[in-house]
Design a protein that fits this description.
This protein has 207 residues and is of the alpha/beta class. The chain has eight helices and seven strands; from the N terminus they run H-H-H-E-H-E-H-E-H-E-H-E-H-E-E. The chain has one domain: 3-Layer(aba) Sandwich (Rossmann fold). It is globular and about 40 Å long. The structure holds S-adenosylmethionine.
Length: 207
């Protein structure tokens, strides 16, 4: 919790108690997992990076620093909980947060006139969400050719059927998949899972 304040941690925990399925974790991820989420992500000028399920923003400073280093690159965070969104807007006034569901990603991009994203970095508890398949296939559809979807999987849930379904879905959906080394300095420890859209895929046209 090094990048979050204690108040953020408590706020997060209270939201978890109120809605365990959608919050999906007892406490925010660490900066070590955040670093693994963006490792080797090469951005080009004008690229768009999306963050899914931003929560209290434990990945956000790491992603924002990467985006700020590239001319014209842009960030959009999507978070469905109004309370989290309000705190995110106060903490990161320079960033754009949509208080919406990631299932609506195509219309959120179109409304802002944003091009197909280079990367979608997800903090969603995907294996607990009934729309996991829709979220992953829609992410692949809106990404630019060669773009990447990244998520993480906790150590203790790795052998569960939900985590197995997620890994199979990533393999079925993306041209290439891989995973990071286990990030031990996170509670619980986690692997980053990565899916890359085919470089030769047709570019998605926004409505
Ligand atoms: C485990 S928290 C992740 C927080 C942070 N990224 C981290 O890793 O510490 C998951 C977040 O996803 C949000 N969420 C769940 N389903 C969502 C959906 N369909 N669209 C947008 N946000 C969603 C929840 O409100 C919650 O804030």
């Amino acid at each position: 919790m090094a990048t979050s304040t204690m108040a953020d941690g408590l706020f997060f925990f209270r939201r978890f108690l109120g809605n365990p399925r959608e919050v999906g974790a007892l406490c925010p991820s660490t900066r070590h997992l955040a670093a693994a989420m963006v490792r080797d992500l090469a951005l080009r000028p004008g690229d768009v990076v999306l963050e899914y399920g931003v929560g209290t923003g434990s990945f956000t400073p790491t992603i924002a620093a990467l985006v700020a280093a590239v001319p014209g690159a842009r960030y959009l965070g999507i978070e469905r909980e109004p309370g989290f969104c309000e705190r995110l807007r106060a903490r990161f006034p320079q960033l754009d947060f949509a208080n919406d569901q990631v299932e609506n990603v195509a219309s959120l991009l179109a409304a802002r006139g944003l091009p197909a994203p280079r990367a979608i970095l997800s903090g969603l508890p995907l294996i607990l969400l009934p729309t996991m398949r829709e979220i992953v296939t829609e992410a692949e559809r809106v990404l630019q050719p060669g773009g990447e979807f990244r998520t993480f999987s906790y150590l203790q849930s790795w052998p569960t059927s939900g985590a197995f379904r997620l890994r199979r879905l990533l393999r079925e959906t993306f041209a290439d998949t891989s995973r990071s080394a286990l990030v031990l300095r996170n509670f619980p420890p986690a692997w980053v899972l990565r899916g890359q859209k085919a470089r030769g895929a047709a570019a998605h046209r926004l409505a």
